[in-house]
Design brief:
The chain has two helices and no strands. It has 90 residues and is mainly alpha-helical. The protein has one domain (18-89).
């Protein structure tokens, strides 16, 4: 098994940290946007009731729902990867 020096571990950790935090931040930012879109569309439907824009609004709600699920998956995966990497470095 190769030995690791402390400087090597620190350098690897910094590189790993940058690569795992970026996807997490991106996923959280996108999640906020998707939630905002969902809330705005749901509010518009509630305020105006069913109308000519209802099909478009229903598609927008479904799209936001899919985006939310995808961003939660990315955030969970980034978190799991970060945890695994920390376990490896411990």
């Amino acid at each position: 098994m190769p030995t690791l020096s402390m400087s090597r571990v620190t350098d690897d950790f910094e590189v790993i940290g940058m690569s795992t935090i970026s996807p997490l931040n991106t996923a959280l930012f996108a999640l906020q946007q998707s939630l905002r879109s969902f809330e705005e569309t749901a509010s518009r439907i509630a305020e105006t009731g069913p109308g000519d824009d209802l099909p478009r609004d229903l598609v927008a709600l479904r799209q936001a729902e899919i985006e939310i699920a995808a961003n939660v998956t990315v955030a969970r995966t980034a978190n799991e990867i970060a945890g695994s990497l920390l376990d490896l470095l411990a």
